Amino acid sequence: MSMLLQLSRSDSIQELLDNLTAEQIMTTNPVCISQSATISQATALMNQYSIHALPVVDDKKIPIGVISSSDIMIHNHEYLSYFYHKQNQCGPPTAPSQLPPTPSEKSRPSLSQHPSGHPSGPNSHLETFQGDTAGSTDTTPVRDVMTPTIFAVVEHQILREIIKTFLELKVHHLYVRGEHGIVKGVISPLDILRSLL
Question: What does the DSSP assignment read for 94-142?
């Protein structure tokens, strides 16, 4: 009897793999960030929404890359290493809190977002984000630190193909492109597991 149940379950999983689409399993309306926003703003957004990556968009909301917490950690390490090295050559060390901000434009542009807002549902909205928060002063533009590639699938792509794409690219998220290339959703491994229950 249990063997019959396993075979039945196996058939239903195969059916899901071939019939579920990206549009059906994605988390809708992911938070996006403007290419001209600062690293401090990106960090604040990731902390606010407990996410580890943000699609970076141009003025037309077209994705041009991704900024992740890993990108920011690498940037911070390089930034601090540069100043520590410079100080070891030129004089006594300075505490990290006394390091100057990274060079950037004097005016800090605001974040942009996908019109529908928050990654957890279509009814929540993110206000336009201005300035730095939490005392952070890194004004490096996101475009200087982001990974200039966005790994995406299209809305009608089936689950079997999506899983293959995850395995081939070894990434943590795939974005879903809608009409005109705009980011419509995001898929994580958790979304896939949820769809198979």
Answer: --GGGSPPPP--SS-PPP---TT--TT-TT-------S--TT-----BG
Among residues 92, 144, 117, which one has the least CA distance to residue 32?
A: 117
Domains of the chain listed by start with CATH number:
18-196 (3.10.580.10)
CA angle 172/189/179 to nearest 5° reads: 80
The answer to whether residue 114 scores a pLDDT higher than 60 is no
Is the pTM higher than 0.85? The answer reads no
Residue type, 102: T
| First-to-final CA distance of the chain | 21
Report, in this order, helix, strand and coil percent for the chain, each rounded to 5.
40, 15, 40
**Whole-angstrom Cα distance, residue 36 to residue 194?**
35
Structure tokens at 196: 């198979």
pLDDT of residue 137: 73
135 vs 15, 62, 81, 138, CA distance in Å? Answer: 51, 30, 21, 10
Q: CA–CA separation, 61 vs 194, rounded Å?
A: 29
Look at residue 188 and give its three-state secondary structure: coil
Angle 157-145-190 from CA coordinates, rounded to 5°: 35
